[in-house]
Design goal:
By secondary structure, the chain is an alpha/beta fold. The chain contains eleven helices and 18 strands. It has helices at about 40-45, 95, 155, 165-175, 190-200, 215-225, 235-240, 260-265, 290-295, 310-320, 340-350, and strands at about 1-5, 15-20, 30-40, 55, 60-70, 80-85, 115-120, 125, 135-140, 145, 180-185, 205-210, 225-230, 250-255, 270-275, 300, 330-335, 355-360. Strands 3, 5, 6, 9, 10, 17 and 18 form a seven-stranded mixed beta sheet that branches. It has a six-stranded parallel beta sheet with strand order 13-12-11-14-15-16, sandwiched between helices. Helix 4 crosses helix 5. The longest helix has 13 residues, at about 190-200. It is globular, with a radius of gyration of 20 Å. The two termini are about 15 Å apart.
Length: about 350
């Protein structure tokens, strides 16, 4: 038996309870978790913004050590450090055939499987976003496991599984920020902090962080922000004032709210790029008129998982970490136990802090 955070139903509070994990079957890997990040996507699963079968063990950003492997698994062995990949590409669908593995049509099929059972009543449990990282141990499909980069502690490597890949990819793959360009990042949570660091790494000349909380300014500047704007009705005007009345070359929205997306768009210069990373609900409607779409010539694009290929991007990120360009500790504002996840959700709702990290 292992302890895990179970979502019994959408809208219900998490329950910290014991679960029974089977031994890994063919093509599966059992992992002892070292750490798991508490991501806004996990919160979106609890409130129904994103939907997966329930009851489920949540958590999708994690790293740990291989305990055992099933038949046919050869790329990792017991004792190996690994990073969990919650959206593994099938390699066969139309998106994968185009090289757009982050849009794989079958990436989340594993979330519908039964992977464990509650110890108290034997009821079936689903693995959240495929990997069920909010648990002391988990069993996942082999394609959800990547070797952890050498020289990176597993507690840090957990952040690579979502926040860092997403923030880095938003800058490098989706918006394709170039050296010397100006960037605004909306939302200074875990993904936003990773995005700020990625903009600094690429050599952006001005990096403006935007958040509703004045208390996050120090966090943002540590991650690479050159300027900080407390979100208000005048945010777009303030950003234009910081960029010679032009607006930024690139705005990255990490919140997932209609008003923030619209403000990010208005903060972008004519011909610039607005990238939406935040996951909003269906009720968050963003409107544009036909004339402004023509006149401003901006590009508005969604960004899934940073438009990243984890197998290719993890080695690049590891090199940035070893060279001191990427500081994973700057993303984490709280280390917690498994029991602390509900409070971490409350902090996210309240807009407090960066990434909370569950350390096992």
């Amino acid at each position: 038996m292992v302890r895990a955070a179970v979502l019994p139903a959408v809208g219900s509070p998490l329950e910290i309870t014991e679960i029974d994990l089977p031994e890994p079957g063919p093509g599966q890997v059992r992992i002892k978790l070292a750490a798991a990040g508490v991501c806004h996507s996990d919160l979106s699963l609890t409130n129904g913004t994103m939907r997966v079968p329930v009851p489920a063990v949540l958590g999708h950003e994690g790293a740990g050590t291989v305990v055992s492997v099933g038949e046919g698994v050869t790329h990792v062995s017991p004792g190996d450090g690994v990073v969990l990949n919650w959206a593994p590409a099938c390699g066969k669908c139309h998106a994968c055939s185009l090289g757009e593995v982050w849009l794989c049509a079958d990436a989340l099929t594993g979330a519908g499987s039964v992977y464990a059972r509650r110890s108290d009543d034997g009821s079936d449990l689903h693995p959240g976003l495929n990997v069920a990282a909010f648990a002391e141990e988990t069993v996942v499909a082999a394609n959800c496991v990547l070797r952890a980069p050498e020289g990176v502690p597993l507690t840090d490597a957990a952040l690579l599984g979502c926040a860092v890949l997403t923030g880095y990819g938003a800058v490098h793959h989706s918006a394709r920020v170039r050296e010397g360009e100006t960037v605004a990042v909306f939302g200074v949570g875990g993904v936003g902090l990773a995005t700020l660091q990625a903009a600094r790494i690429v050599g952006a000349s001005k990096i403006i962080a935007v958040d509703v909380s004045p208390e996050k300014e120090e966090l943002a500047r540590r991650a690479g922000a050159t300027d900080y704007v407390v979100a208000s009705e005048t945010t777009a005007r303030e950003i234009r004032g910081l960029t010679g009345k032009q607006g930024v070359d690139v705005a990255v929205e990490c919140v997932g709210r209609a008003v923030t997306i619209r403000t990010a768009w208005e903060s972008t210069r004519r011909g610039g790029r607005t990238t939406v990373v935040g996951i909003g609900g269906k009720g968050q409607q963003v409107t544009f008129n036909a004339l402004e779409l023509f006149h401003f010539g901006r590009t508005l694009s969604g960004c899934v998982y940073g438009n990243s290929d984890p197998a290719k991007d993890l080695p690049v990120l590891a090199e940035h970490i070893r060279a001191g360009r990427l500081d994973l500790s700057a993303l984490v504002t709280e280390h917690i136990a498994l029991d602390g996840i509900p409070a971490a959700f409350d902090n996210m709702v309240a807009g407090k802090g960066g990434r909370a990290l569950v350390v096992f």
